[in-house]
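REQUEST FORM: STRUCTURE PREDICTION
Request ID: SP-0412
Submitted by: Lab K.M.
Chain count: 1
Length (residues): 426
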Amino acid sequence: MDATDTTDTTEPADPADPADPADQPPPPQPPLPLPLEGLTVVAVEQAVAAPFATRQLADLGARVIKVERIDGGDFARGYDTAAGGLASHFVWCNRGKESIALDLKDPRGVDVVRRLIAGADVFVQNLAQGAAARLGLDAATLCTEHPRLVAVDISGYGASGPYADKRAYDMLVQCEAGLVSVTGTPERPVKAGIPAADIAAAMYAFSGVLAALVRRGTTGRGGPVEVSMLESLAEWMGHPLHHAMHGGTPPARTGLAHAVIAPYDAYPTADGGRVLLSVQNDREWRRLAEQVMGRTELGTDPAYATNAARVMNRDRTDTLVAEALGALETDEALARLTGAGIACARLRDLHELADHPQLAARGRWREVGTPVGPLRALLPPIALPGGTEARMGDVPALGEHTEALLRAVGMTDEEIAALCRDGVAA
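STATUS: Completed
RESULT:
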């Protein structure tokens, strides 16, 4: 061959050749671990706000040690017996935790908590205002002693100000935060049907812990986290609050209707159901009139053709829609609305939610162990595709893990026996 001939005579690889590594699918990767795997949380908690926050941490892999009173434990255990003999609030907020029962009025009980905290990454408490500080378990004190610790104080109204020492229950905070003023009918304000203030505080405590852990990863320091129920719910009131502050008037209470959109309400159907629909623009109104109501002329009638006109004539608009949907069974009404591109929903009760076809189709239900046997529970809404499924551990019996945890902090059989004999641990 001529020395200047640079022709490549190598046979190209057969793209279908199974021996070619480039054509082989990558080996399957093991699922990612839960993001909080290996972290330990100690919680002196009760009711909903702190327990719901720490349950989120447990679902994401953290070990959560729940410190309870020896005389009945978290008082949410006694709210009701609806969940197979257990309290529904407790079952909802406390899966995946270890329970230790201690008397914190005895210094020996506090000493056990301090030993647990010494090996923890996160501490959460929602005791009555001032109680944690008297025990030396407030966030500021603990973070001084343990610089890597993330310590969370959850309160009703915050640690300062004229409301600091007021007792704070969910309904009271809903009232103080103005939620009740915008919920209900024109004739009567009502509280939300869920503990909205508790849930708001819980979710800000949860996200505050995650943020503090990220900061610890870059600085090596944890630090205090403060969350109040009032401030959490006040943030959720942003839309009506800004409407009132900057527009001059608060939004009216309208039940299921909308203050500035029509039609937007729930309407009865022929088989006793109720269908909620929302018409967002005038094109949708024309489709509703033609394809659902069978009244094409209403689409261009000046009394209804624009949203402003429909709001001005809300009663008549609602009557016309109700007459049309009232002649249809629920499934047919929903099918027609969907076919016309109208946003709609079935007004479901809680039993219907438990059987919701969307939750079933997406496999959102699991069973969790409890002292009375397995109970259904929803997977947490945070999904981490490619990772390990959320850890939905058992709901603990009161003091179920007391002895094991006392041993874990170095106590001898004699010391454990003495604590149990003296009513300090149970």
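NOTES: The chain has a mean pLDDT of 93.
Reviewed by: T.R.
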